[in-house]
Structures are given as C-alpha cells and as structure tokens.
Amino acid sequence: MDPVGQDINLNSPNKGLGPAGGVDSLTGVSVEGGAMGVAAVNTLPPGLTEEEAEELYSELAKVEEEINTLRQVLVAKEKHSAELKRKLGLSPLNELKQNITKGWQDVQTSNAYVRTTEKLGEWNEKVTGSELYKKTSETLSVAGQKTTAAFSTMGTVLSRKLGDMSNYSIRQSISMPTMRNSPTFKSFEDKVGNIKLG
Predict the structure, then answer these.
(1) Which residues, 6 or more positions from 97, have their beta carbon under 8 angstroms from its beta carbon?
(2) How far is the C-alpha of 152 from the C-alpha of 139, rounded, in Å?
(3) What is the full per-residue pLDDT of the chain (198 aa) written as tens digits?
(4) 103 vs 109: CA distance, rounded Å
(5) Pairing relation of β-strands 35-36 and 31-32?
(6) What radius of gyration, in Å, describes the C-alpha atoms of the chain?
(7) What burial letters (b/e) apply to 21-50, b meaning 16+ CB within 10 Å?
C-alpha cells in the first residue's frame, strides 16, 4: 500500500489501513474497506466459521500494515541516525573500534572469563610446581648448557685448525707433499678415510 495514505498512529483504530480496496501483500487476498474479503478464499480451515475467518483475516491485515509502518519508521530513524553520526564525525571504522573495545571489556569482566583465568592460573601453579616439571626443566637446562659448551669447543678447534692452515705460505699450500704432512691435513684425511670405510 502507499505509505502516504496510511495512518501511522499505532493507537488509532484505523492504524495501517489505507484506502479501501486492493490486495494484501502477504496473503494475496483482496482487501475491501480494510477487511479481507472472505469470498476470495475458497476453503476455510476445519472448525472455523466464515465470521471467525473474516475476523482473523482482518486482524492479519492490520498486523501486516503495522509491520510495514514500523519498517518505514525504522528506515527513517536509521537515516536520521546516519545523518547525526555524519555531523558528529563518527565513521563506521570508529564505531567498529569502539564496539570491539567495549566487547573485549565485556568479555574480560564476564564471569566465564574470570573463572577461566583463575582456573588456568591454578593449573599453571600445579604444573610448574610438580616434580616432573622441575626435573624436565633441569634436564633441558643441563642439555642446553652441554650443547653450548660442545659448540664452543668445536668452534675453538675449527678456529685453531684453520689458523694452522693459514700459517702456510702460498708456495707451501701449492706443494702437495708439504700439505699432506701437516697435522691438520692428516687429521682431515683420517676423518674422511673413516667416513669412506664406515
């Protein structure tokens, strides 16, 4: 129906009723003078008289018109709200940020979040206070220290070996027999030989 001809006062006895005649948008039944024409309906549900059906159709038409009116009012209110927000400089992004912040604050103060945080704290204390955790932590700490020491020793040995090799002059490095007799080369040769054999 045309919204211009409607009575939007929800307390009015004529609320939502427009000009006489027309077709109801939901049921497709003709509307005559604000009431449904029962003649347009071929069959009645069992247990209903024509008079009761006419009352129900009339009430249905009024409710549908109220719904349409409320939709129109809501659209007008949303437009007005958007205009006010625009004038205040509120953007959808700012609103989203505010909503997320407010939502997170609500979550943090909720009983479920508080109880979960407390329970996780209790579990953490139990786990970190257990003997198994302490032993595992100590073992990993010792293993880390030993690994660090091994890498440090290996780095020192490699530096020393490379230093030994750098003491040779270019002529000595070109001379294979001299190089083969060096302790570094022999050590390297032994290791490579062991790899081939093993």
Answers:
(1) none
(2) 20
(3) 444 455 555 555 555 554 444 555 545 555 544 444 444 445 888 888 999 999 999 999 999 999 999 999 999 999 999 899 888 888 888 888 888 999 989 988 889 888 998 988 888 888 888 888 888 888 999 999 989 888 888 888 887 777 666 655 555 445 556 666 677 667 766 766 665 554
(4) 10
(5) antiparallel
(6) 45
(7) eeebeeeebebeebbbbbeebeeeeeeeee
Q: How many CA atoms lie within 13 A of 45 on its CB side?
A: 6
The dihedrals phi and psi of 2, each to the nearest 5 degrees, come to: -75, 125
Adjacent-strand bridge partners of 57: none
For residue 94, the SS3 value is helix
Residues shown for the chain: 198
Letter for the amino acid at 35? A
